[in-house]
Amino acid sequence: MIKLLIPLVLLAAATLYKIYRDYQGDRRKAILDILLLFFLLFATGFSSYLRIYTPLLFFHLLLLLIGWINYYRYLFGGRPRLSLTLAPSLTILLFFLAGLTIPDQ
Fold first, then answer.
1. Distance of CA 74 to the CA centre of its chain
2. Domain definitions of the chain by residue range
């Protein structure tokens, strides 16, 4: 877990610096940027729980990659596409639904 934590902390620090540097009085945009960053960090950390369901883990990692790429495209001046950035929440929801519906062995 520590192998993942160090790059995520560095990524978060660089992103927060970028948000701080580009902040020009628009609090709503800054808060949205920070909330999206925290969601993506949470979803990335949640990946370790998805090891139970391997196909779901691969789908989650693909959606994480799409989410991170879309977030940074948005952060560096692209159009915001929240559906792509929040896509890993779909696999997290599927994880909890699978836990409710699949019986214990």
1. 14
2. 2-101
